[in-house]
Amino acid sequence: MTVERKYERDVDLLLAEEFAVNPTFADRFKALTKFDGRNATVADFWVSKSNNLGESDLIVIYQRQDGHRFALLIEDKVDAPLQPDQAARYRQRADRDRILGLYSDYEVILCAPRHYIDSRSDLGDFDKLIPLEQIAQMFHQVGDARASYRSAFLETVGTRRVNAWSREVDVVTNEFWDAAYTIAKHEFPLLRLRVTQRGSRPYRPYLPEHDCISFPTCHSPPARLGYVRASDKRFGGDQN
Fold first, then answer.
1. Nearest CA to 131 among 147, 115, 145?
2. What's the rounded Cα separation, in Å, for the pair 13 and 58?
3. pTM across the whole model
């Protein structure tokens, strides 16, 4: 997986697209909720829908053949902690939408890496906790390259790539700094530059902090600023 850092917004958009264009995925996800067994298809969805009560990462509305609608309100997490009363405010937004007639029932769901769910004790206000790794399994049965990519994406949301970068000595770079040091030492001895090269660390001249040159500064701004003409005789201007 070449995506080194994944964010909540990435998960929001990936899931939203699947709900929008993949009926099989929508059915499998619905089967993880209290609406399992209800024959319904996705009728609408919103990403980052917000009002004065906060923001919902993803809202998915299913509709039955009789017109009955229900909603899944999904909060996606990667590693960020919960906001104060986050699940409660999801319910407040859902209740407002229900009063407006957008749907008649709902469930508030948290989707996050499994280790996030297992390691926290403040998730009890959500109706359902669904690990992203479990959602990733929904793609395994499809068996194509696109599904495999999305499955791997969700399975690795909670992992960060280890930084394998290491220092290497570069001869050309060192020659550049050596020439710069020679010139600075000859032309500006007051700087008292020093050189560091430890083991595999690159060669660099540097200015020690205690040797830094200080310059006078103005601590009090002038009381008034103004300008004069270049020809003003009072200030020795050009009198021609």
1. 115
2. 9
3. 0.65
